[in-house]
Write a structure and sequence with these properties.
344 residues; alpha/beta; Rossmann fold; UDP-galactose 4-epimerase, domain 1; two-stranded parallel sheet; 11 helices; 13 strands; NAD(P)-bd_dom; UDP-glucose 4-epimerase activity; UDP-glucose 4-epimerase; carbohydrate metabolism; EC 5.1.3.2
Length: 344
């Protein structure tokens, strides 16, 4: 085994896919998750894919003493991948205090404990939302961080500053900050995928749930943006491609290849796809006509953003490989698997 990695939010969507890739790469994994937007069933899925059952503890990262006990029980943790956070742009506008309390305190608690337990490496799950509405696309890591369009985006900005300030203070840690664009799809095994609790806050599960009849109709927020078809444009990245970048980041820190104590990378495909384009791709691969309607713009939404991923391509040796058709097909197959199992 390469070493033990703590994955916060590891029962969730991106977390579970990353645990699979970590275990496939030879790491042992400890997952903590409060299951507020995930299910422990994903642990079974991870085991079915890899043949290894990760250690799992239901724990909220805001519980400082609970975290302290966890680190005491696992003194050999070599690094942390921190996913655990509330993550919906729209909900954050409605519930800002929930987002600030959850997303900031969870990171602060981890950073507080890392030096006490000799943990020196943390990968932070950030977001392209830190760029706000970009002046130009594609956008690279040198672009300015702009005032956030939502409390969710602001928590990502603040957390990045917290990490930088902590390192600047002399803390003996390294961090790689990964700014995701828009993760979608599911593991090709259909053993794990995106399964939000309640009404989906993300686009693709809303598409697939509408297509299979769980939701009556889907809303497209705005068709009057300055884009070719009037709908917002995003950079949609396959979740397995995204997960693999985290393994590379952990390898990089543990092998002392990091050039700085804090490094930042954009993770995207480099291609912008509109919401209406994505719906068309889904209809093509699934053969299902989607029931959707155009409604007004949603507060907090950015008009268009997609990545310039060359920095990650060159420095990390990472590239997004899956195309949008295969990715949407994997999301649909995951939805069909959920129906087959009687889950949704």
């Amino acid at each position: 085994m390469k070493g033990k990695i703590l994955v916060t939010g590891g029962a969730g969507y991106i977390g579970s896919h990353t645990v699979v890739e970590l275990q496939n790469a030879g790491y042992s994994v400890v997952i903590i998750d409060d299951l507020s937007n995930s299910t422990a069933d994903s642990i079974d899925g991870i085991e079915r894919i890899t043949g290894i059952r990760p250690v799992f503890q239901k724990l909220d990262c805001n519980d400082l003493e609970g975290l302290r006990k966890l680190f005491t029980a696992h003194p050999d943790i070599k690094g942390i991948i921190h996913f655990a956070a509330s993550k919906a742009v729209g909900e954050s506008v409605q519930k800002p205090l929930l987002y600030y309390r959850n997303n900031l305190n969870s990171l602060i608690n981890l950073l507080d404990l890392m030096p006490q337990f000799g943990v020196k490496n943390i990968v932070f799950s950030s977001s392209c939302t830190v760029y706000g509405e970009p002046d130009v696309n594609p956008i690279d890591e040198t672009a300015p961080v702009k005032p956030a369009e939502s409390p969710y985006g602001n928590t990502k900005q603040i957390n990045e500053e917290i990490i930088k300030d902590f390192v600047r203070s002399g803390a003996d840690i390294k961090s790689i900050i990964l700014r995701y664009f828009n993760p979608i799809g599911a593991h090709p095994s259909t053993e794990i995928g995106e399964l939000p609790n309640g009404v989906p806050q993300n686009l693709v599960p809303y598409i697939t749930q509408t297509a299979i009849g769980v939701r009556e109709q889907m809303s497209v927020f705005g068709d009057d943006y300055n884009t070719p078809d009037g709908s917002c444009i995003r950079d949609f990245i396959n979740v397995v491609d995204l997960a693999k970048a985290h393994v590379i980041a952990i390898d990089r820190m543990l092998e002392n290849k990091s050039e700085e104590k804090v490094e930042i990378f954009n993770l995207g495909t480099g291609r912008g796809v509109s919401v209406l384009e994505l719906i068309n791709v889904f209809e093509k691969v699934s053969g299902v006509k989607l029931n959707y309607k155009i409604v007004g713009r949603r507060e907090g939404d950015i008009e268009k953003i997609w990545a310039e991923p060359k920095h990650a391509n060159i420095v990390l040796g990472w590239t997004a490989k899956e195309n949008i058709e295969n990715t949407m097909d994997s999301a649909w197959k995951w939805q069909l698997k959920l129906r087959e199992k009687g889950i949704m």
